[in-house]
Design goal:
Blueprint lengths: L8 H18 L15 H10 L1 H26 L6 H26 L4
Helix pairs in contact: 1-3, 1-4, 3-4
């Protein structure tokens, strides 16, 4: 008789926390420091930052969404007594979508009108 698949809660929570942390960190890599002709010009800096406003807004929006999903996942996981293979598969799909978030945020920031 085959033993059913079970995974300890701490292993899954560690993986989930790590993936969320990495995805949330990678988001900021799309936000670049603007190049300025005059490094002392506050006005030029303000214009450059305004020009990159969509990228910055996409970063904060995406970070907030990932934070909400992380909290939601932990609230849901607290209600689960045991993680079996089908539930683990659902979590892996969720983590794949989380890992895709930095790409989606970059698209949103670069092409907001699309």
């Amino acid at each position: 008789m085959k033993t059913p698949f079970r995974m300890h809660r701490a292993r899954i929570e560690t993986l989930v926390d790590g993936v969320f942390a990495i995805a949330m960190t990678i988001l900021v890599l799309e936000v670049k420091v603007p190049d300025l002709a005059d490094h002392r010009s506050a006005e030029e800096l303000a214009v450059a930052l305004w020009h990159h406003g969509y990228v910055i807004a996409a970063y904060f929006f995406s970070f907030a969404m990932l934070a909400i999903f992380w909290v939601w996942h932990h609230r849901l996981a607290e209600k689960v007594r045991e993680f079996d293979l089908p539930l683990l598969a659902c979590i892996i799909v969720l983590l794949a979508l989380v890992c895709f978030f930095p790409f989606a945020a970059a698209l949103l920031g670069r092409y907001p009108a699309n």
